[in-house]
Write a structure and sequence with these properties.
275 residues; mainly alpha; Ferritin; 15 helices; binds fe (ii) ion
Length: 275
């Protein structure tokens, strides 16, 4: 049960590394530079995208349930990791970003004023993006890669130490998540030909979907942080996605050029919707 061992190990690391309760948010916000106040205003919807990880985990469970048991049972690792680590760690990312944004934008604590309606929306009123559990699992992984580069870029623009430390903690979680999803998917791909085939089909149909798109705040968030997606950041995301897929599959049924083209086309259309 190698997979369960990894998941229990990741839980221990996750719980002890950093704690959302250990920050004096009012003090952090009061000491932000004008440059950093502007950055905090832009990360509000990113916080909603983080909280919607609970929504994708619920969707993933539903999709696993639709599979025949002989395939669904092999998703035990992604189910456990999604429920035990992802929902907890993405939740702390979401609450911490929204707490900072709320204090800066309207002087109120998000954590003290979060409503059931808002959280229900992020958990249950989500967009349906995936045809099957293979697509949702792949999206968990590929979304982390975008997040790592996004937080790296935000980090490089921040001037205040305490705010930068928070973003670095979040980024380190995303790096850890990426590594875990690679392990989980690689083990499945190697275990059965049917999993390899279904994941390969998922690469073609859904490699461009970001997990946070289940949230209705995704397009707003993507627009808000577009200034952090420079051409070089964008290239790093695409290169890392391609290299990660090659690492898992060895070879892909789609060329690097087509992979990049489809990804760009998808987001050009999607982001333009609100411009
Ligand atoms: Fe996150
Ligand atoms: Fe993550």
């Amino acid at each position: 049960m190698h997979g369960v061992y990894d998941i229990l190990k990741s839980l221990k690391l996750g719980d002890h590394k950093w704690d959302v309760n250990n920050y004096d948010y009012v003090d952090i916000v009061n000491n932000l530079t004008d440059n950093d106040l502007e950055i905090v205003r832009l990360i509000d919807s990113i916080g909603d995208g983080e909280l919607s990880a609970i929504g994708i985990t619920i969707q993933h469970q539903d999709l696993v349930r639709k599979l025949p048991k002989e395939l669904g049972c092999d998703f035990y690792e992604s189910n456990l990791y999604g429920f035990c680590t992802i929902t907890y760690e993405e939740m702390r990312h979401g609450f911490i970003l929204k707490e900072l944004a709320s204090l800066v934008k309207n002087g109120k604590s998000f954590i003290e004023n979060a409503t059931g309606n808002h959280l229900y929306e992020l958990m249950y009123e989500t967009n349906t993006l995936y045809k099957n559990a293979y697509e949702s699992l792949l999206s968990y992984l590929l979304g982390e890669i975008t997040n790592i580069e996004l937080y790296s870029s935000i980090e490089s623009h921040i001037e205040s130490n305490n705010f930068r430390k928070i973003i670095i903690n979040i980024k380190k979680d995303e790096i850890k998540h990426k590594a875990a999803w690679i392990k989980i998917i690689s083990r499945m791909v190697k275990s059965k030909d049917v999993h390899r085939k279904n994941f390969t089909d998922a690469v073609i149909s859904s490699h461009f979907i970001h997990q946070a798109e289940v949230s209705n705040y995704f397009v707003q968030g993507a627009n808000d942080v577009s200034r952090f997606f420079t051409t070089s950041t964008y290239k790093k995301v695409l290169e890392d996605k391609y290299e990660t897929l090659i690492q898992i599959f060895g070879e892909l049924p789609i060329s690097k050029r087509d992979l990049f083209y489809e990804f760009s086309e998808y987001y050009n259309k999607k982001i333009k919707k609100v411009n």
